[in-house]
Amino acid sequence: MMHHDTLGNPMTYHSSPLIDPQITDEALEWAIMHGVAIKNPDGSARHCPFSIAPMSLKRSVYQHLLKVTPLLTKLIDAVSEDHAFLRTALGQMGQADPFFGRLLQMHARIHQDEQHIARRQPLLIMRTDYMDDRQQGAKVIEFNGIAAGMGPFGQRATELHAFMQRQWPSTYQQWLESSNAAPAENQALTELAQAIATTAKTIHDSYQDKPRCQNQKHQQNQNQNQAKPTFLMVVQKNEDNVYDQHLLEVALQAQGIRTVRRTFQQLASQLYTGDGHRLMLKNVGHIDVVYLRAGYQFSDYCAPELMEPECCATLSQIRIFIEQHHVAVNATVSQQLATSKTMQMLLSQMTPEALTHWGLTLEEARLVQSVLAQMLPITTAQIHWFNSQANAQDWVLKNQGEGGGHCIFGEQISTKLAALKPQDYDAWALMQRLYPHERERPTIAVRQGEQSLIQDLVSEIGLFSVFFNGQPMTEHNGYAGYLVRSKPAKENEGGIHSGQGILDSITLIDA
């Protein structure tokens, strides 16, 4: 029986359930009850698609990723604060990609001279996405330094599988890839909230002994929450992934942090400067942490009603204004630049010795190199090589875009390369295509309340890490849990929202 998802994509379901529908009904109700949901346009919610049992990963691979991911974060953190290097390394890419060109203009305004000090304190919340290639082992797909979300969903997926194991152990074991596998601990929501709360309190406490103006005293009298550290989440208008965001906010509130949400357009008329270069929000008061879940595409800064002579100029200035204040920020403009595909390519081409420039030891640099996949710039010579010698199935063509829909595969690569103008080349890169291990046993995916059997599931593993002012913010060298999204091997787009991805978790095997 053929069905279609909300985007019109065909999905094959069995006419008779693969397992008792009572099980999947209760599992999806658990998911909705625990916030593992996506908001529908009419204001209702639907559960996120999920697997009925977790994937398996070799313990040695998992431990290697736990060791190397904080080192990658340490590297990116240092690169993001090397402002001269960012300008030099990404200048040509900025000319080829209009959005990153705008980011570089913003970067120049923020760091142009001593009269315009970037007082912001860098809070790097990064998700490093990997695939475990069949031949070459685990390799980085991309760095996510802005809007690096879904950590809460990662922890919830692990908890959902634990719920399955407790409630229906025989069904869980039936679909488990390895009967001897042990669940990998995942405290992504808890760890991220703790790191952000600690950061917010650090900024907040730095102001406690400083004099306050009368206006601030008045606000304190008006608002009992004024004494609390305050977290601002910058969001997209009409966002559908609100529940993942709210899970983080609720966890922060439990730690005594006040949370507020605003779009860039709202901030344009609500931000102002307080004493001691403190960032202030109208009708709220001081802000201690700014966390961007928006800002990675032009549409986030677009406000047609402003009738701007230059699109997005007004709202993009908000980021400049924020970074001129004493506030913790994720992602800073420089962090967004440092996690670009072009920077990933440049770092992958460096020797371990070159990487030590940013504070890594030679041994750490070699570990970093071990997970960086080969990437190549787009040039006339490279295009000729690709068309005449390369195996198209071994490569992916990527631009600088975030999220799904920015990768080109197989024979379509040559078509796209032929259509590119030379001035566009620096916005693109070729990356070695990864072919991860397929799950050895079929699994059941639950999407829109229906069961489907997937024979060839592969997984993308995202590891979170947090650094503040160059220092790791968790007890595990900055590591802060994981997110697993799995998809059929034949599908190129594995997003939870727009692709054929499903939430998953990890079990460890010693083989």
TrEMBL record:
InterPro entries: Glutathione_synthase, Glutathione_synthase_a-hlx, Glutathione_synthase_C_euk, Glutathione_synthase_N_euk, GSH-S_sub-bd_sf, GSH_synth_subst-bd, PreATP-grasp_dom_sf
Keyword 4Fe-4S attributed: no
Residue stretches of biased makeup (Low complexity): 214-226
EC number: 6.3.2.3
Keywords of the record: ATP-binding, Glutathione biosynthesis, Ligase, Magnesium, Metal-binding, Nucleotide-binding
Pathway this chain belongs to: Sulfur metabolism; glutathione biosynthesis; glutathione from L-cysteine and L-glutamate: step 2/2
Pfam families: GSH_synth_ATP (PF03917), GSH_synthase (PF03199)
Names of the cofactor(s): Mg(2+)
Domain Glutathione synthase substrate-binding: 230-338
Region (Disordered): 204-227
Protein family: Belongs to the eukaryotic GSH synthase family.
Name of the featured protein: glutathione synthase
Organism: Vibrio stylophorae
